[in-house]
Design goal:
about 210 residues, alpha/beta, Purple Acid Phosphatase, chain A, domain 2, 7 helices, about 30% helix
Length: about 210
């Protein structure tokens, strides 16, 4: 199990999320919110509510979890697979890959890409197939095989805050033997998660959007 980052950010269960992810995830990567809270990036350009949420999170996170965030890598690689929070070519910049135009910008860097590249950041479920001939195709299936000769970029959605108008949590599995990627959606207790946000000193919209999946 691999977590692509943003363990913390807009939610009210700061330490609980860190506890759980540290327990179940073999590898956790540094998301932009994790980087902001742990002092590894400047977030002064974020909008007011997001900056306040990060400040609020930083004031409540346990020191042990803070040190853990400071130790997280930007990327992880296995045989033919790469994981990162943002753009796989330069994950430190936290650039998005959720539109076909953004996927096309990766074509000059095909040699630096793994066969399959899993990314987070956008909270959207998207997949793109890149061919050395210059062709980029969006893969719309929720379960698909990896074709030889192509490089794939798969945006895995979000467990905690999906934004594709489906409010269920999303995660992805990859069968390395069959070379099959599959998106999975599961319901979770949105009301409890949202109520914790409403009860905290956080923007109400961070809780309301959970019901809508936006």
């Amino acid at each position: 199990m691999i977590c692509l980052g943003d363990v913390i950010g807009y939610g009210a269960s700061v330490n609980e999320c860190c506890d759980l992810v540290r327990k179940v995830s073999e590898v956790t990567l540094l998301g932009n919110h994790d980087a902001a809270v742990s002092g590894r990036m400047d977030y002064s350009f974020y909008y007011d509510a997001a900056r306040h949420a990060l400040d609020w999170t930083a004031s409540r996170i346990d020191p042990d979890h803070l040190e853990w965030l400071r130790s997280l890598p930007y990327r992880h690689q296995l045989d033919g697979v790469q994981f990162s929070h943002g753009n796989p070519v330069n994950p430190e910049a936290y650039e998005y890959v959720f539109a076909i135009e953004q996927a096309r910008e990766l074509l000059p860097h095909l040699g630096a890409l793994a066969d399959v590249n899993f990314v987070g950041h956008s909270h959207l479920c998207k997949a793109f197939a890149l061919h050395p001939g210059g062709d980029v195709t969006e893969v719309v299936a929720t379960r698909f095989g990896i074709r030889r000769g192509y490089k794939y970029v798969v945006s895995v959605g979000s467990v905690g805050q999906p934004r594709d108008c489906d409010n269920r949590a999303c995660f992805v599995t990859y069968d390395t033997e069959e070379r099959v990627v599959e998106f999975h959606r599961v319901p979770y207790d949105i009301e409890t998660s949202a109520q914790k946000i409403f009860d905290a000193d956080l923007a109400l919209n961070f809780g309301k959007r959970l019901f809508l999946g936006v």
